[in-house]
From TrEMBL:
SUPFAM superfamilies: TPR-like. The keyword NAD does not apply. Transmembrane segments: none annotated. The keyword Hydrolase applies. It comes from Prosthecobacter vanneervenii. Keywords: Hydrolase, Protease. Pfam families: TPR_16 (PF13432). This is Putative Zn-dependent protease. GO terms for biological process: proteolysis. Gene3D superfamilies: Tetratricopeptide repeat domain. InterPro entries: TPR-like_helical_dom_sf.
Length: 248
């Protein structure tokens, strides 16, 4: 920047770096410099809104975003920023509306965005819509473990065990190591009250682990799964073991 102190683009780029690191005051300073050097005002307003939101100045950020979106209604990222600011202001209905719009106007949403919106929906007791959203994410992005685990969590909370078990079966087939998913399947069967099937699943898993070569069987992850399996088989038929999260 010392060689090109009048280059507004450099200030914009540094602003983006400041925002990534949460340095909102430094970001605002560079935004002012870029504006004086002739950068696009609308683009700077979006950056300014993000900086203000980082600083907890949500009302100011929301006002800027509302104005920006009047002129740029197709800007998916701006809708998502707006949704997050509205959520901080506890305007949850408006936040969800902005999230839905932002998702529709994002060309290739990342898995984390589906998770973020699903969490927002769940917080407002819209679990059915959250499941549908996660299913859409899986259809578009494939069986990303984070998406599968989240939709399973919601399905289990709704006692939709067959749907959750079907997802476990798919992940077990795709995983480089099936044992963590075998353990989850057995625990789910137990949770669903299908005791005999659960015991058979735990037994199959135990036999599989004991049949592994010593080096594989003795790994830390496999030792933990074997311990969980042995506890489950030793427990009374009505007792459900704790479910471990698959090591992916």
């Amino acid at each position: 920047m010392a060689a090109r102190p009048q280059d507004s683009i450099l200030y914009v780029r540094r602003t983006q770096l400041y925002l990534e690191h949460g340095e909102w005051k430094a970001a605002l300073t560079d935004i002012e410099r870029a504006e004086r050097l002739g950068s696009d005002t609308a683009a700077l307003d979006l950056l300014r809104a993000q900086a203000l939101a980082l600083g907890g100045l949500n009302s100011q950020a929301e006002a800027l975003l509302s104005d920006f979106l009047k002129d740029h209604p197709e800007h998916g990222f701006a809708h998502l920023v707006h949704a997050r600011v509205l959520a901080k202001m506890e305007r949850f209905e408006a936040s969800l509306k902005a999230y839905r719009t932002g998702l529709r106007r994002t060309a290739d949403p990342e898995p984390d965005l589906y998770l973020e919106i699903a969490q927002a929906l769940t917080a407002q007791k819209l679990a059915t819509e959250a499941v549908e959203l996660l299913q859409l994410g899986i259809a578009r992005r494939g069986n990303v473990p984070s998406l599968v685990l989240k939709v399973m969590e919601l399905e289990i909370a709704q006692a939709k065990y067959d749907a959750a078990l079907a997802r476990v079966d798919v992940m077990q087939q795709q995983a480089p190591r099936p044992e963590p998913w075998m353990a989850r399947r057995a625990a789910l069967l137990q949770q669903a009250g299908r005791t005999q099937e659960a015991r058979a699943a735990w037994t199959t898993l135990r036999d599989r682990i004991l049949g592994l070569p010593n080096l594989e069987r003795g790994s830390h992850a496999m030792s933990l799964i074997l311990e969980e399996t042995q506890r489950a088989l030793a427990a009374p038929a009505s007792a459900a073991p704790e479910t471990s999260t698959p090591s992916l």
